[in-house]
Design a protein that fits this description.
By secondary structure, the chain is of the alpha+beta class. It starts with a strand and ends with a helix. Pfam families: DUF761 (PF05553).
Amino acid sequence: MSIKGEEVRKDQGGSGSSYSKPGMPWEVDERAEKFITEFRRKMSLQRERSLDDFQERLARSA
């Protein structure tokens, strides 16, 4: 497939039926969304672990 004379490949990476060309805006948006989602997930897990650790320390001191 081509868009305005540029060759575009169909993404076979399991992300659906999207078309991508390295550096195209929607590919950057997609990668940014994945990064942000993963970052938020990790922060949530870290917050949970921190709270669990705090509660364990609190229980030991009582």
